[in-house]
Structure formats: C-alpha cells, structure tokens
Amino acid sequence: MYTEKVIEHFRHPHNQGKLPDYSAVGKVGNIVCGDVMWLYIKVDVDEQGREVISDISWETFGCTAAIATSSMVSDLAKGKTIEEAIAITNKDVADELGGLPPVKLHCSALAADALNEAIYNYLTAAGREIPAALERRHAHIADEMERLERRYAAFLESQEEAHKGG
Ligand code: FES
C-alpha cells in the first residue's frame, strides 16, 4: 500500500520536534480525519542577501502518511528561499515519496499547507506584502481550521454530556 520511501520516512522521520528559536510557526488540521500538524521555520539571510529557510521542524499528530509527508516537506523546504518554499505543492511532496495511495492523498495536503501557513505568518509578522496565491491558500486553510475546531468543540461537548449522564 505504501512505498518503501513512505515507510522509511515514517520509521525514521527527519527534522521532527520543535525548533527552540523558530521565526514562525504554521498550524493546520485535516478536516477529513482530525489530524493536526505544527511546522516551525527559521529564516536567515544568506550571503547573497536572500531569505532562506535555514532550519525547519514539525510536530504531527497523525497517520503514517501524515508523518512521512511532514518529514518529506521539511527535507524539501530546508535551505530553500521563501519564494522556492512557497512553490512547494502537495503533489511535489507526494511525488517525492513515490506516490501515496489515493485514499491518503489528503494527508499530503497537511504538510504543504503547514509550510504555507508558517511562511504566511512569517511575512505577516514582518509587515510584508503577501503574494496572492499564498493569501488565497491561507483563506482556504483558515476556513478548514475553523470547521475543524467547531467539529472538535461539538465532539468534546458530546463527550462531556455522555460523561455526565454515565
Ligand atoms: S489520515 Fe489524517 S492526515 Fe492522514
């Protein structure tokens, strides 16, 4: 079902954990399954004066594909300029892993979306102009996060009610 590369990244994930000195963090949740990911980026200026993602890490509560895609997106974005990192798509992540089962394709969205959000938060905090594509994707992600939080709130409420009744 999974490629060897997916299994390898799941068993030995790269850049897992929380960076102590990150420049920005992106948090996203998957509305389909409820999995959540935090992605941390450290941005520095290189010798050519370009802003690059000098370090990156992530924390993911999710399935095998979510862990593998988190690991892969961190490999793909590390050392890239902000512009190059913005261009990384869900498909790039899935392709680099040798593909994902169709039912698991939504999992690759989590990793690429978290990168999108970390960059969005970085640019916003710096008072910088947000590229239109990044802004559109952010609006879509923010909408999904809101729906996820509403769903969790209803779930927690129902658990509370069940507990009281028990
Ligand atoms: S099933 Fe939740 S991200 Fe894969």
How would you concisely characterize the structure shown here?
The chain has 166 residues and is of the alpha+beta class.
Tally of discrete structural domains: 1
How do the helices and strands follow one another from N- to C-terminus?
HEEEHHHHH
Sheet with most strands: strand arrangement: 1-2-3
Low-confidence segments: none
**Ions, cofactors, ligands: which are bound?**
FE2/S2 (inorganic) cluster
What's the average pLDDT?
91
How far do the termini sit from each other?
A: 41 Å
The gyration radius over C-alpha positions equals 17 Å
Residue share in helix: 40-55%
Return the CATH architecture: Alpha-Beta Complex
Helix/strand/pairing category: alpha+beta
**Given the structure, what is the number of helices?**
6
CATH topology: Sufe protein. Chain: A
Q: What coarse outline follows from CA principal-axis ratios?
A: globular
Under CATH at level 1, the class stands as Alpha Beta
Give me the count of strands: 3
Largest sheet: 3 strands, antiparallel
Strand content: 15-25%
Provide a descriptive summary of the structure in words.
With 166 residues, the protein is an alpha+beta fold. It has a single domain, classed as Sufe protein. Chain: A (Alpha-Beta Complex). 54% of the residues lie in helices and 16% in strands. The chain has a 3-stranded antiparallel sheet with strand order 1-2-3. A hairpin with a 6-residue loop joins strand 1 and strand 2. Helix 1 packs across helix 2 (64-77), helix 2 crosses helix 5 (105-125) and helix 5 (105-125) crosses helix 6. The structure holds FE2/S2 (inorganic) cluster. FE2/S2 (inorganic) cluster is lined by residues 30, 33, 35, 62-63, 65-66, 104, 107, 110.
